[in-house]
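Re: the 117-residue chain
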Amino acid sequence: MKHKLDFIYNHWLSITIVLSVTIIFLSFHSISAPSTMQGIDKYLHMVAYLFLSFSAAFRKPTNDIFIFSYFLSFGLAIELMQPYFDRYFELFDIIANSIGTLLAITFAGLLRKYYSY
């Protein structure tokens, strides 16, 4: 497992950039979800921000407050711009994004401790 974490540790910036661009793209395009997917939107936000912020949290352990603030600001900026792209602002999206980021920081801290990074 440690060699898989080495990839994340060594390529954290590239991973973060690719996931950021993907989230921006998906955030500004209207996607009509099937009726069976209604209600899981917030879970998707949480998982997206967990993956987005995990590599930075794993690589930069002393900057947890900065990492949380950065990804909170990133999500807030996207939410504020969405009305210009036929989407709408949702406070619960920001809350879900924040929970995902907090989970990423927590998991990254546990993995660093367990695998002694």
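The radius of gyration is 15 Å.
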